[in-house]
Amino acid sequence: MGRFEFPYMAAMRTDGRRRPPDRQPTLLAAWRAALADHDPRRLVIGGKSMGGCMASLITDEAGVAGLVCLGFPFHAPGKPAAPRIAHLARLATPTLIVQGGRDTMGNATEVPRYDLSAAITIHWIDDADHSLVPSKASGVPEHVAWAEAVDCTARFVKKVMKR
């Protein structure tokens, strides 16, 4: 299947003007359209931040083999008291979330307290932010953190595609 862009991203690339994301119904319709001509059982879908969140909302409906989310927005930045995770408690699709340990949208202290489905595995990138970039103080270069994210994602995809 490859990559696709949400409509607002494609428009931004065309005219160069920054704009806010489309509303949720438009984003979900874009996901459904992208999946329409594919055998979902042969797909692992996902995305970064909001893209992964939107994928998580349609993954069970779509019947895909797996879901990978990089930097999941469990809540608005710095607002852990208002999580956006109700659908994650009942998610049935095997899911990998690669999350920075100090992500302001869900860190290693907050997220383990959430009621998440047993289908979800979280891989923590130590001392990394929402973009999976480690702090300078950690001494871990960004490319090393991303190599870890890619490696755990590759292992996950191999595992779910064997089912």
The count of domains is 1
Overall mean confidence score, pLDDT: 94
Shape: globular
Strand order of the largest sheet: 1-2-3-4
Sketch the topology as an H/E string, one letter per element: HHEHEEEH
Derived structural class? alpha/beta
Radius of gyration: 16 Å
Q: According to CATH, what is the topology?
A: Rossmann fold
The major sheet is characterized as: 4 strands, parallel
CATH uppermost class: Alpha Beta
- Beta-strand proportion: 5-15%
How many strand units?
Answer: 4
CATH architecture designation: 3-Layer(aba) Sandwich
Distance between the termini: 19 Å
Number of helices: 4
Characterization of the model:
This protein is an alpha/beta fold and 163 residues long. The chain has one domain (39-161): 3-Layer(aba) Sandwich (Rossmann fold), CATH 3.40.50. It is 33% helix and 13% strand. The protein has four helices and four strands, in the order H-H-E-H-E-E-E-H. Helix 2 (24-35) packs across helix 3. The protein starts with 6 loop residues before the first helix and ends with a helix.
Give the secondary structure arrangement, pairings included.
Layout: H1 7-15, H2 24-35, E1 44-48, H3 50-62, E2 66-70, E3 95-100, E4 120-125, H4 142-161
Helix pairs in contact: 2-3
The gist of it:
With 163 residues, the chain is an alpha/beta fold. It has one domain (39-161): Rossmann fold (3-Layer(aba) Sandwich), CATH 3.40.50.
